[in-house]
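Field guide to reading this record: the first block holds the primary sequence, the second block holds the structure written as discrete tokens, and the final block holds curator observations. Each block starts with its own label. This record concerns CD1247 N-terminal domain-containing protein, catalogued under organism Effusibacillus consociatus.

BLOCK 1 — SEQUENCE
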Amino acid sequence: MHQLKERMAYIKGLTSGLDVNRNTPEGRVLLEIIDLMDAVIHSVDRLNIHQEDLEEYVSAIDEDLTDLENDFYGEYDDEDIDVYEVYEDEDGEQDDDIEYLEMECPNCQETVFVDCTVFDDDDVVEVLCPECHETILVNDDSPVTTS
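BLOCK 2 — STRUCTURE
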């Protein structure tokens, strides 16, 4: 953009040095074209400024949306999951009231913790391994089938 402004200033300097005036038909046409080019350059400059502002605004909206999605859906990263934080209450102390069944997945050998209250309900509940997503336990007293 800076280069266009410099070239426009150069052309204006040439026309004033050549003593181009509006008294002749050619001079009027040439000066009108120069005025038109100057107006176009200013319009493009304003559009560039507005474009930069919009890009900043969209970037801010994108960051806000990302924060909102993380707050609403929660961030999920396998490396951030600490199995033992399940045992802690809000104060960071261990909660002895919750009992867990610890078992090893037969498919991927990952240690899985299952809340024992799952077995208290009359509903049939399947426990899936969080690592390989295979069924590892069903609380209906029937044998487990894997797919």
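BLOCK 3 — OBSERVATIONS
The longest helix spans residues 25-73.
Strands lie at 100-104, 111-115, 126-128, 135-138.
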